[in-house]
């Protein structure tokens, strides 16, 4: 274990792009110092993704030692999942949230509006209400009254916003906080002001439907699934003693991991709970070699077949990351 931890601590930086963008609280030891990265430590992110521009807005990240999976959709014991894959899909299932502000869509819409108004300004003499510009007498200016400087200011604002849009588009993450007073530099605020916008925080916002889901931002070296077998039946907690099929190889892909390369894991141990919701006894199936498994119950250790392992009603499943 010490050798494995040393290898992890000396490994290359994480290849997941989101792990460098999402803030995370590192685990701490009892004396308050930062703890070394543990083989079981992973990082999940609860993400909001715009259904229009597909940009992800990070909500929060959390370290975990195990991923807690359900045996059925609503914890009522009805329609239990048949496989680990089904339970994982439920864990990462997306939730639709209406009317969420999207800063990327807001800037895109603003750039498109500026493009249309600049085209109108350059080709017609129709009065154009651009950023609230008016003459001293309160009437809207017409295109014939606009100076070259006016056009330059509008084009400068358009180019500034288009650059921010492109930065957001290339990163895949919507990290622009339009409610942050420090979102714009002093020079950029001057550009806003020359276009009649005193405070950029007051610009109209675009809202869209967002999808919320859980994503594995930093996969652990050892992935531990904790199968929650407790369900509620008639307001009483009972243990759901059904079989959940699992594979000896697990390949994590979208939607659980989307900003990393697909990751492959190999099953190394299965923990089983014998008893009911009030108590019982734990045993473990442990892989010794690729085809040799043993069953451990207290001090008793016996050889078992792979078929015996697959018939186990797992309480915990431990998968180790395979060499890349």
Short précis:
By secondary structure, this protein is of the alpha+beta class.
Kindly provide the radius of gyration, computed on alpha-carbon positions and rounded to a whole number of angstroms.
Answer: 28 Å
The SSE string, one letter per element, is HEEEHEHHHEEEEEEEEEHE
CATH class membership of the largest domain: Alpha Beta
In the CATH hierarchy, what is the architecture of the largest domain at level 2? Alpha-Beta Complex
pLDDT below 50 for ≥5 consecutive residues: which ranges?
A: 1-35, 125-132, 139-144
Helical amount among residues, as a percent range? 10-25%
Instruction: Please name the CATH topology of the largest domain.
Output: Cathepsin B, Chain A
Biggest sheet: strands, sense, closure? 8 strands, mixed
Separation, N- and C-terminal Cα atoms: 20 Å
- What is the mean pLDDT? 79
Q: Work out the count of structural domains.
A: 2
Number of strands: 14
Strand content: 25-35%
Helices and strands in order:
Elements: H1 2-9, E1 42-50, E2 56-64, E3 67-70, H2 84-91, E4 95-101, H3 103-123, H4 148-171, H5 186-194, E5 207-218, E6 222-228, E7 230-233, E8 236-239, E9 249-252, E10 263-276, E11 279-287, E12 293-297, E13 300-304, H6 306-310, E14 314-321
Parallel strand pairs: 3-6
Antiparallel strand pairs: 1-2, 1-5, 4-5, 6-14, 7-8, 9-10, 10-11, 10-14, 11-12, 12-13
Task: Describe this protein's structure.
It is a single chain. The protein has 324 residues and is α+β, with helices and mostly antiparallel strands. The chain folds into two domains: 37-95 and 216-321, Cathepsin B, Chain A; 103-124 and 146-205, no CATH class. Helices cover 23% and strands 31% of the residues. The protein contains six helices and 14 strands. The protein has helices at 2-9, 84-91, 103-123, 148-171, 186-194, 306-310, and strands at residues 42-50, 56-64, 67-70, 95-101, 207-218, 222-228, 230-233, 236-239, 249-252, 263-276, 279-287, 293-297, 300-304, 314-321. The strands form three sheets. Strands 3, 6, 9, 10, 11, 12, 13 and 14 form an eight-stranded mixed β-sheet that branches. It has a four-stranded antiparallel β-sheet with strand order 2-1-5-4, with helices on one face. Strand 12 and strand 13 form a beta hairpin. The two termini are 20 Å apart. The relative contact order is 0.16. Mean pLDDT is 79; it is low at 1-35, 125-132 and 139-144. It holds the Pfam family UCH. One of its GO terms (molecular function) is cysteine-type deubiquitinase activity. It catalyses: Thiol-dependent hydrolysis of ester, thioester, amide, peptide and isopeptide bonds formed by the C-terminal Gly of ubiquitin (a 76-residue protein attached to proteins as an intracellular targeting signal). Belongs to the peptidase C19 family. This is ubiquitinyl hydrolase 1.
